Amino acid sequence: MKSIVVLVLLLITVLAVKSEIKAVINRSGDIIIQTPKDSSSKLFLKGNVYNGNSLTSIQDVEVSNLISHVMGLLPLNNQQKDRSSFPNVSIFNKPKLSLQFNLASISEESIKDDLTFLQNGISIEKTFYPMDSISELATIATGVTPDVHGIVASEWFANGQQKVQAYGKKSQSQSANVADLLSQSFGGKSLILSSSYCKKFTAAMALHQSLSSKNSYGFYSNKGITIENLSQQSSHLSEMILTPGQVETIIYSKAFKEFVLPSDTWSLSLNSGIIQITEDNGKTFYFNLDSDTDRALLTELVMVFHTVQTLQKSEHFHKLALDAVPDMLTFSFTGHKQIGVSHQNPEIQRLALTMINNAMKSTYESLSTVYGGKVACSVVALAPAASHKEYIDRIEQALDNGVSVPLSESFPHVYLPQSQKESQQEICQKVQNAIQELKVHCIESHTYSKVLVNADANTTSSSSYNSQEALEASADTNQVAAFQIFLFFPILWVLFILGGALLMMKISSDAQKDTLLYRNSNRQY
User: Fold this and answer.
1) What angle do CA 396, 402, 407 make, to 5 degrees?
2) pLDDT tens track for 269-298
3) What is the reported pLDDT for 461?
4) H helical segments located in 371-412
5) What is each CA distance from 18 to 15, 221, 356, 445, in whole angstroms?
6) Strand 439-442 and strand 31-34: pairing?
7) If pLDDT is split at 50, 70 and 90, which confidence band does 386 have?
8) What pTM value is reported for the model?
9) How many Cα atoms are found within 13 Å in the side-chain-facing hemisphere of 11?
């Protein structure tokens, strides 16, 4: 009997070791290198609904739960129902707007020195390994880990050979995000907008295309020039989307200068595609709209500015902001990441962050006015990806030709061609010998997530978000509606009783008027 117990315990131990690293079939690598721990991303909260917040850390899968909580929605994707650590929000003071900013590759030094809008950061604890900025943002948006939503990185190899970009036609997230939940909860009437120069950042926070509505928008830049929209059903699109010429016109406007510059003592001028910004100390910097990195930063700033202006001035969008249905706007900044490197000047990186800081501040203040102060603002500052070039170089030297080494310095997956699958254990050992100070995981077929076995096999649909998930989203919508009715039922019941009491107490000054009270008194006149 004891021997059986020992064998069972050993089996449990072995299984626990083998499942230590989760993987997604056709997406994760055959070998995963466990690199040193990366720095943590940060969450910042602003708005009256967060005044009682005492959080110092939060798991990445709980960020969307926090946002859905303050917006009065049920937990997303079977998240924890216990919200006792979250701020208490009165049902009479629910936010009318969920405003979120996402910043790619932000160090703690930059937060302290350049992003003064951000105060009292909350550490975001990662619950899955490995993740790059795209997979981390997808996890934050959906509340589930990459082995469930399927976005293992910005790009990966399918079947070890074909490179696949995240959020393509056959590489969508398999899980609903908080924007899907909000839109479905209110019958598609919510204004949902996600905007970034990078399509992947936009898609991570936008509605799934199969759920898009006339009030949903997902803006990104196509080939660095035109701005495109992910949604297929957007109405009044001409008021929101911008042409390249309109982008340049806005940059030259006085209102845009006030929106992004910290003081009127700074100046901005545009001449033949060259933008000159002069600080109050006399330092001058130049941006070129023909440069991809410069255009990325400026386009993202312009898209935020234009959205705010549209909500303030457009009759259609101003009505959407003033109705009783809550909205969600998300702006993701990625253009600042490489600008310091491309200009070979770290000072211009600081300037870029200063402009982003003022754009966030201006947006929050302007939209607080539009939405009557009922804005729940969250900022996710994604930590810079750690560089592991030294380890990758050593892996390349140890492996034979034909093996796909990590796609980037921050994505430690090794992909094997089909012809070398049978030699996986031997190759794993070679990798481990090359980098003995790190742990190497040899991913066997039974350790893969079963959720996404056919994730890349469906070629007939433009979105991997299938009808079954849409039905589940509808079920969640019904639950949310029932929950909201339940919240207001006691209020309606009290009003009904008070109304009845007032009716009973209505005694006519004229005794000949046959009121309900007189009829019940049995008095004769």
Assistant:
1) 55
2) 988 889 999 999 999 999 999 999 999 999
3) 32
4) 389-398
5) 5, 42, 44, 11
6) antiparallel
7) confident
8) 0.82
9) 6
CA-CA distance, 326 to 99, in Å (whole number)?
Answer: 11
If DSSP states are collapsed to H, E and C, what string results for 390-401? HHHHHHHHHCCC
Kindly list the structural domains of the chain, giving each domain's residue range(s) and its CATH number in brackets, ordered by start.
2-35+387-449 (no CATH), 41-385 (3.40.720), 479-519 (no CATH)
The answer to whether 209 and 462 have CB atoms below 8 angstroms apart is yes
pLDDT, greater one: 247 or 162: 247
Angle at 367 between CA 364 and CA 372, to 5 degrees: 115
Work out whether the CA dihedral 109, 115, 118, 122 comes out positive or negative.
negative
| Token pair for 317 | 């969008």
**335 contacts 300 by C-beta, under 8 angstroms:** yes
Percent of the chain, pLDDT > 70?
79
Distant-in-sequence, close-in-space partners of 317: CB < 8 Å, separation ≥ 6: 191, 236, 239, 240, 310, 311
16 vs 495: which has the higher pLDDT: 495
Q: How far is CA 170 from CA 131, 181, 335, in A?
A: 20, 22, 26
CB environment 55-88: b (16+ within 10 A), e (fewer): beebbbbbbbbbbbbbbbbbbbbebeeebeebbe
Scanning the structure block, which residue is given the tokens 């201006």? 362
* Helix, strand, coil share of the chain (percent; to 5): 45, 15, 40
